[in-house]
Amino acid sequence: MRLYAREEGPRTAQVALLIHGWSSSWYALSPLLPLLSSRFRCVAVDLPGYGNSSELDGRITIPRYADVLANLLRELTDQPAVLVGHSMGGMTCVTMALRHPQLVERMVLLCPTISGKLSTYINLFVSPITMLERFPLADRITGALEPYTVQITDRLMRPASFSERTAITQQEYERLRADARRPGQGRVRAECYRAMLHNDLRGRLAKVERPALVIWGAEDNTVPLRDAGVVADEWRNADLRIVPKAGHWPQFETPDVTRRYLAAYLGLPLVTTRLEDSTTPAAQVTQAAAFLAHSDIGAGLTLQQRLRLAAQLRMRSFAAGAILSHGDDDSSEMIVVQRGSVEIWSKPIDADPSTQMLLANVLPGQITGEIALIDGGLRSAELRAGEEGATVLLLRRDRLVALSVDDPALGNAVIWNIAAALALRLRLINWQQQMLAEQQRAASRNQQSAVSSQQ
Length: 455
Hints:
The chain is of the alpha/beta class. It has two domains: about 5-265, Alpha/Beta hydrolase fold, catalytic domain (Rossmann fold), CATH 3.40.50; about 280-425, Jelly Rolls (Sandwich), CATH 2.60.120. About 45% of the residues lie in helices and about 20% in strands. The chain has a seven-stranded mixed beta sheet, sandwiched between helices. Strands 8, 9, 10, 11, 12 and 13 form a six-stranded antiparallel beta sheet that branches. Helix 1 links the parallel strand 2 (about 15-20) and strand 3 (about 40-45).
């Protein structure tokens, strides 16, 4: 069949498949394309029967949509993709993750349909017209009357779709309205309405293995917030965010907030701080996120939080004995050892290397340089790669600050973990000093006892 898609971003990058909702087209997710295409190969499709795509043969169901898009992904890439879905497109994403989990890495869902039951408002005022559109004659009559009833349609649809304080522009609104009333798609709209009702996801979300960011408008009067309660109860890998001053279209109504959540979750350039060099490969982010679960800095973080944190790290490898940082270097980076080890050496006295002493070994999962990260000051010791070399993850101070601004809960958790690791290290140093003092006192007593015996 023929599928139309808007494609943006590097063709060699990981695929991000954007799936619109009921009575819509690829344009429904267009506000996200500039951000997502900075890292992903974005493919925003027109679902079968919508926009410029051909219709399915036979009855439309959400699993059939999911299977068609799964076949599309297999043609586009041999790697798992990121799915971004709005409304019915969100339901399609979850269905794909249940039926084809190997094709999905993670998801971003905007006001997704979960139960398939739309709001009472939609059911009372919109669904009767939609169900009539199943019949070709009624569809033609509805289309012919549309130019004369547009004001009535607007008054019915705006409260269902947008918040009272919506920031959507008139041009954007008119394009969305045109998609919703595109001639010749009445049967598709009616069948999709029924398809959502017959694809209730309640009781199945616990089986979804892939993580997801779920964004919901606080004033959504199309897919009611009761569906968000199902997500909160059943889906442990879902990060649910409720957005004020947004209805069913947060990507148009509160674009800055929506993009900021996406940027933090997918490891894209952070909107508020414009860190434009945030280009860590997606596979590396996933690998680092798994490693962070067993690290000092990642202790207690959820998978979604570790993915966000990993996206802000930079990986570097050093040969055995290579110097990572000199004492007194002006540095504000913290180091997380991933493989090998990092040795901490005292600063030389009078520039004499022979006066340096090995103070500690930093092993995989442990951190060093945390003080310079927090205060932005100078290094207090020299850092060298250990005997087997070292692969490390670097966190810059400006990225930690940006993370704290965009995701305060994650920023606070990271800072807490840094403080806890630092406190543990100080207690260990104090214990070692106490042991050394005890050994010195014991040696002194033994020496005094030996002198007394000789006398």
